[in-house]
Design goal:
Elements lengths: L12 E2 L6 E2 H5 L3 E6 L6 H12 L1 H6 L2 E7 L3 H15 L7 E3 L4 H5 L23 E6 L5 E7 L7 H14 L4 E2 L10 E3 L5 H8 L3 E4 L2 E4 L4
Parallel strand pairs: 3-4, 4-5
Antiparallel strand pairs: 1-2, 3-6, 6-7, 8-9, 9-11, 10-11
Bound molecules: benzoic acid.
The site of benzoic acid (BEZ) has 9 residues, from α2.
Length: about 220
Amino acid sequence: MSIRINDIAPDFTAASTAGEIRFHDWLGGQYAIIFSHPRDFTPVCTTEFGAVAQLSAEFAKRKTKVIGVSVDSVADHDKWKRDIEAFGGAPADFPIIDDSSLTVAKAYDMLEADYYLPTEGRTPAHSSTVRTVYIIGPDKKVKLSMTYPMTVGRNFAEILRALDAVQLTDGKPLATPANWQVGQDVIVALALNNEQATERFGALDIKLPYLRFAKAPQ
Ligand code: BEZ
């Protein structure tokens, strides 16, 4: 079954480049991003992991842990890290999980549909994980997920933007509009009437009775 928003992120124990990871313990009550990629030593994946390495300070600023996963071994991850760091020009200081058993890939629905077909002659490409991202909250619940095919590299600026929006709205009667960027106004939920909304979030910019903007809380 697929993982839905607000599901508890599946727990697992796995080897990683940072030693054994017990996932729920590793989360440690912080926001986290778990993201899969198809294989080590492949071009798009190298650009993606280089991009994540470059954003290390941004994730730290947001108190968000990051962990990669693919079906390759720790030994391969360790060797590939050197390429990532050479290409990205930044240390890849986040763990990468060895999911050669496919435990994480199956629990997090990170495999292509074809993988499940009982065909003969399967190659390693059939058990590659696709480019899946989960943002997990301090309550261990899934806040956001996205999945890209193997051929489309992710936009990590968008992942950071989405993380900002998740952190801003988590547990609050707020939402972010289309194409929202940090610093822009946010939408106040209809659970609050105008008086309650003003009291909590300051002056409203009322575009429509059901579309009311307020300054984003700091
Ligand atoms: C890549 O990372 O370049 C890649 C990996 C698997 C399939 C297609 C592209």
